[in-house]
Design goal:
Layout (H helix, E strand, L loop, with lengths): L13 E3 L8 E3 L6 H4 L13 H11 L1 H21 L5 E13 L11 E15 L5 E15 L6 E18 L8 H67 L5 H36 L3 H4 L20 H11 L1 H22 L4 E14 L5 H7 L3 E10 L5 H68 L5 H36 L2 H4 L9
Antiparallel strand pairs: 1-2, 3-4, 4-5, 5-6, 6-7, 7-8
Helix pairs in contact: 2-4, 3-4, 4-5, 4-8, 4-11, 7-10, 8-10, 10-11
Length: about 525
Amino acid sequence: MRRAFVPGLLRGRVREADSGRVRQKLFIFGLWIGLAAAGSSGLLAGEALGLRSAIERALARNFDLAVAREAGDAGRDRSLAAEAAYVPVVSVSFNHTDTDSPAAEGATPKGETEARENAFTTAVGGILPTGATYSLSVSVSETNGTRGAGTSRTDFDSASATLGAFTFTQPLWRDREIDATRLNIRQRRADARISVLDLTLQAIETVTAVERAYHALAAAREIVNVRTAALALAEQSLGDAEARRAVGTQTRLDEQQARAEVATNHADLLAARQSRRERENELKLLVSDDYAAWREVELELVDGLAAPGGPEPDYAASLARARAGRVELTRSEIGVERAGLEVAYRRDRLKPALGVTGGFGYRAADRELTGLWSDLRGGEYPFYEAGVTLSFPWSRSGERAELRAARAEERQARLRLAQREQAIDAEVDDAVAAVASGRLRVEATAAARAYAEAALAADRERVAAGALTGYDVLLRQRDFVSARADEVTALADYQSARAELRRAEGGTLAHWGIETLFTP
């Protein structure tokens, strides 16, 4: 089975299941970074937020990850609780009985026999991984009383003991390879591994979401800058229009158009600021568990929108990495394994119950308790027992129906695995195509922005020479602002596409240096 990723960046305490058969390590995220020492989940004064720092904060404080960690702990504890079925059970009992028995017919009707009995028993028993059950017990009882009627009543005393009474049963057919206890243990182990993989999946989704949100915020901030510059250009154009109208070289309509352009750019700037705030809140919710501490903080980003770089992705290579590294495939394979356990158990139910039983021990009897020990020490009264048991249902229709249902569930698990493999193939294909087209889109929008910027500069010179009206400049200005916004959006989309490709390949955690702690 392939190796699955489990996040452990700057990991804290690692917990390992006690059983040597469960080769898995669960851990609690414990990122101890500067903000923890500062006693606050918010940014420190003047601190800028880099992408790696945002990811570290998300791994330490994201609510979805906290929920997944608790689920992982619960899965581990359920696995340990299932294995506790093999822990021996100690029982101790003491009984006191007073009995009045009537005499035989024709005698005095009441009070002929009065008996008092004290009985003490202690035992240790349990089940073994082979399906056997065992019990080792010690019992001592003392009885005394009177019997008879009238002057003929006599006293009587007796004591008995059983020492080292060991009994066992061992199934030889049904329940020999698997029984309800072993099925439960193996299923709980599988569930514990799945819970660790679910934690891994949540970490991958969180890291990818932080990358997307960070790039979206960087784009939103840049678009605010673009809209701010566009408003400044519109206000400058309005000033120029007012000056030219004052000297009679421009009409009132040109001035009104310039004023309309200022109002439009102002509205666009307000919308861009609102979009920036929303993108900020998206990132804050991912990296913090205390929104109130971050609410009034305007995030300063360290990393901007980088230009495309690196080799072009190859579908075949990306698909190979995905087949080896996608946690979802490991999870589905464990689901098939878990369904197979149920099939094996239901198939075993069709067998007759054949088993051997045995036991041995020592008994003693005397009038007084003190007289028992000499018999027990000498081992004068041993007992042995051995036997064979065989049982089978008159009809196995119920067991066969359960087996058919278990096989159907196993086929469903295999179909889900095949469906997941196909979905991953498509995800990788889409992600590779998105990166390739994203690179071309960045290049195209950068060229469009450069042409629009050159056209705007040329038209401003022609307006100054009186060859064009101010309205023509406003049109070029709109083109330039739109081209620059498209370029910024293309850069953010490209970076998000790279993050999605890493997720599709199963390499998100490795890319950010997050270690693996899970061995299936």
